[in-house]
Amino acid sequence: MVKIDLFKMGQYKSAIIGLGQVGLMYDFDLKRKTPSSHTLAYQIHPRIELVAATDNRIEQVKYLQQIAPRVEFYQNIYDMLKQHHVDIVSICTPPNHHLAAIEAILRFSSPRLIFCEKPVVSHLDEVPQLYSLIKNKPIIFLPNLSRRWSTGMRRVRECIMQDTYGALQKIHARYTRGIFNTGSHLFDIIRWFAGSIEQVQVVEKVPTSSDQEGEPSYTFVFTTEHKKVSGFAEAFKDEQYYLFELDLYFERGKIDIRLSGDSVIYYGIDEHPLFSGFNNLKLQKNETGLLAESTLQQAVDHIIRVLDGIEQPACTLEDGIYPLLVANALVCSYQNNGSKEKVEGINNE
Ligand SMILES: NC(=O)c1ccc[n+]([C@@H]2O[C@H](COP(=O)([O-])OP(=O)(O)OC[C@H]3O[C@@H](n4cnc5c(N)ncnc54)[C@H](O)[C@@H]3O)[C@@H](O)[C@H]2O)c1
Which of 19-33, 204-218, 235-249, 335-349 shows the lowest per-residue confidence on average (mean pLDDT)? Predict the structure, then answer.
């Protein structure tokens, strides 16, 4: 077997803006067994040198030092960007700060890649400015739509692309926590599996903890491009339990995604055991523990392959913006008493 010395392949320097949950603190949660923060995912990667991180809360430095003792901490984003020339910058601040972070990065630094947490901005109003900052610039903008890095989810997509169970016809989704937060992942994965959502219609508003952050949660029906797939997404109260589940119905089978993608159950069809002349769904395989793999580590591996020139980015600026278009159509539908609303693109000229 040929052994590859990763260090000899050259390292990329990285920096992080925002050391809250996904930037750093998730790796202090004992229930999370795999690297779940940008800090740890960079810190342990042999091809990455994490050189600096910033947060406006000084108390974050003591946590940073526990995971990455040699990384320089800055309380001011501008000081960090002026001081360090890095290849990759992660943006892990709240969405309403992303635009300011991108502006600062482009003004004071020249990384090759920005790895930006979702939602890429907090509101559709900010999208034209985001476009004008990023479009036609020699920089790769990679949104962290994290389901795309999961090998379990990639296998589901391969089944769809290869028509393993025939055409995908219907999607039932169940989610908690808001159309901007969880919505980013939900609308992206639906698009990745079934094409862009073309039309939405809100059935009801469901109270969740996201309401406190000004973010509604709706139960709604949708159709995807050319009405190929129809769907029903039901919102649940997260105070009762957390949910992120999808059921995908095909001509000749079904795939159930459970526990936020940790488990995937595949069904084919077989003769019905009780009723003559009918088929029945038959369990084929049950994959569990899929999130034992760190999706952030997978993302960092992908970033390296992109910077090495081996892969194209799996996620683009447009992919990052798309969930906001769906969220906007849902808000319009709710405000118009459950009208059918087209998911409109935006003019970015
Ligand atoms: N991809 C995922 O699965 C996933 C999971 C969790 C969070 N997120 C996203 O990541 C982003 C951050 O979420 P979070 O839960 O970590 O939030 P958080 O509030 O826990 O952390 C944000 C951090 O940014 C810091 N900050 C705010 N303004 C700053 C500034 N101007 N300069 C430097 N630091 C600043 C805050 O002090 C805080 O420590 C959000 O966009 C969120 O939606 C994504």
Answer: 335-349
